[in-house]
Amino acid sequence: MFIGRDAELALLRAHLDAESTAVPPVVVVEGSIGIGKTALVNEFLRAGLRARVLFARPDEVATNIPLAGIRPIVEELLDDDLPVLLEESAPRVLRRRIREALTSEPSIVVIDDAHWLDGEALDVVESLIAAPGVSALAVLLCFRSGTIPDSLLRAVERGGASLQRIRLRPLDSADAATILGGHGVADDALIDLAGGNPLFLRLLAESQVAGADLVDADATTPLEIGDALRGELSALDPPSLALLYALALTPAIAPATVSEVAGTDAASLAVATEHLARRGLIDADELRIVHPFIRAAAYRHMRPARRRRAHRIAAQHSADILERASHLQHVGSHLTAEEVETIIRAAEIVSATSPQSSIALLTRTRRIPHRERDLLLARALLLDGRPVDAEELLRDVHAVGTPRGEGLALLLQSLRIQSRPDEAFELVREAGAARLEPEVIVELATLAVMHDGDAELDSRTWLDDDDARPGHAMALAGLRALSHLRVGDLERGRAAYLVAKAGFESLTASELLPVIDVVTAMGWCAHFLADFDDGVRLVERAIRLAESRGRFHVLPHLYMILSFLYIPLDRCEEAEELSALAITAAEKYNWPDAVPLALTASIVAAPGRVDAEEFVARYRRLVDAGLPQIGWWRRIVRLFVARASIALGLPAELADLAIDRNDIFASQKHIGLGEMALAAGDLPQALQHAEAAIAWGEQAEHTSQAGHGTMFRARVELAQGRVDDALDDARRAIGLFEQSGSVLYRRFAEATVAQLEATAAEAGPLDVLTPRELDVAELVAEGHTNRAIAERLYLSPRTVESHVARILQKTGLRSRAGIARHLDTAMRQPRRS
């Protein structure tokens, strides 16, 4: 019986079932418990709608399975079981596939009790609402009052959807009396007590029909809806209560299982079904509880032992491993060894999509000792950005002995993320190098490379060359390459990188996954060696694998290095998106060192794309972020802070540009020092640094750095008035950048050439001369010697010689014949005053 909501129903239909809409509609129905949100949605769905309807109703009892709240929608759209989807696709990929599936035909997504959506499901809903391309989509969401997430409202704003909020008010007295009358009850006291809440009214009416006197005139505490529902449950006979308990389980059980879970025979089940339906607690046709509040109350009403038994029986009849694990997690310390393995397997599946879900599942089994479970839980804690918790767990696990194998590798990783390398090195000393497993060696080598090494722990020699594990062998080769490059040994670094690159390209996904952290080292090698295209392919593959297999802790670093690799390829917009992703991921997964380096990438991507005000804002964000703890990351940030300071006319720390022996950043630092000299007007000093930057690039066979040095020399030559030389260098830089694959910097060099050519054509080289120098130039052009010019102009020959030298320097011309040619052209035009 649908009473008192005709106006709201008409509003729903007007917004969600229209022939066409200019913008996708989003309707939010909100109200208190039992106010009629579910009844309104059910009535709306009973009518024949023009669009396809996709319906889901999340449960209050958490399943700890990502996307469980919208599982029916996901499985219908993608035509596959949720466990398969979670195991095979990254969350980002699933969101894209769902969005694409919704564009096939007009659809209405309806989610009742949306306040119980799990985090991943809410992310999907918000991404659909914010997506500009899903115009055939309408969305109906029901929330309890005060529970609408701000993120959802922001998604509506981003996507430009039309938002309609329908707030359900209490029913008036006439409608309340109609509801009571439908149950054969007429009592003004019940109307006053229920306060216009439809569910409360029905529960009160059923209680009175059953003979329960819930209205106590002498009571000092007002009766609430929960009190009425508990009274209703207490009045049920045992078979009816057992059936209600069975139907209250989450995930919902199949009808064929209900009798076994309830512990009743078929005849008793039929009687109980009729009884509960008559009291308005269940839908007999669909064999489900009619209201989520009743379902949650019935679940809480069960005794713990009965709840465990019901979940265990339900797990035995579950359709897939995720459902089994969802039930078994409620068994607690009574789990069998086989049941623990089921939960662990489910946690492995969901960890890729939601480490939080994996943690929740595994934590339910902590009372039972299980080493593999503890290692998986530690990994999930690291993925969730909780290295401190992971460290505490791992130290507890290994309290009785020295950690080994994966446990030690995870403990080292937790310390690395917390920037505590000294403690990690000490752990390895205690373990002893001779007993280290390959995964520990790779983690330790990563530590050594990132934190400037440790003479006592030369992990590069700990794995035999004929090791049969290609992933670990290639990981050490890549780390060896970075260790050489980091100290400026380009020859050995390049040789090791080429070996490692060939090996990484041949690794399967399962071989790459255990050493995926080392791909970040390979990305830096590719950047230092200007191997941008291959570096991008390797890092992009690692990101896809990390996202799909739950290696989220490495994403800040992968996003960041890919940002740096994109910049020279003229993919700066993507680079800035990745920089923002890296910062978000670094904050989420507790890797603060990645933030200043990601902000550095946004500075490097800025020239030619942002105005001066935005550049200053980026510079300030970078300075405010502080410096990384990792040594060579710190040097990168200090270098670019110094260069940005010089560009802005601000004081720069000379120590930030100090060039060490075999410095991998020597070319960039020479350019920075040259920029400082150029800003001070010391052109000879600036030219010396330009020559040094070029020499370093040529000696290292690094054409990209040679190109940057050559472009800077062009700037200095232009400041000296040597336009022709500047033009020659800019043209030379185009070839160097072309050779190195630096698309962005080749484009900059081409723009400089065009600008210099246009300037030379417009102004001419003689415009920079003084009147006396122009007189000398005219006589030079006529073929007079310095002595003859001196006699004509009443000057000494030495003075004339100085004038000629200045003319050649200012104009960039190379000979007296060049002066004649250019003067001949200039004389055809009016002479300047």
TrEMBL record:
SMART domains assigned to the protein according to its UniProt record, in alphabetical order: HTH_LUXR
Keyword DNA-binding: yes
Domain HTH luxR-type: 762-827
Keyword match Transcription regulation: yes
Keywords recorded for this protein, A-Z: DNA-binding, Transcription, Transcription regulation
Annotated InterPro entries: AAA_16, P-loop_NTPase, Sig_transdc_resp-reg_C-effctor, TPR-like_helical_dom_sf, Tscrpt_reg_LuxR_C, WH-like_DNA-bd_sf
Protein name (database record): AAA family ATPase
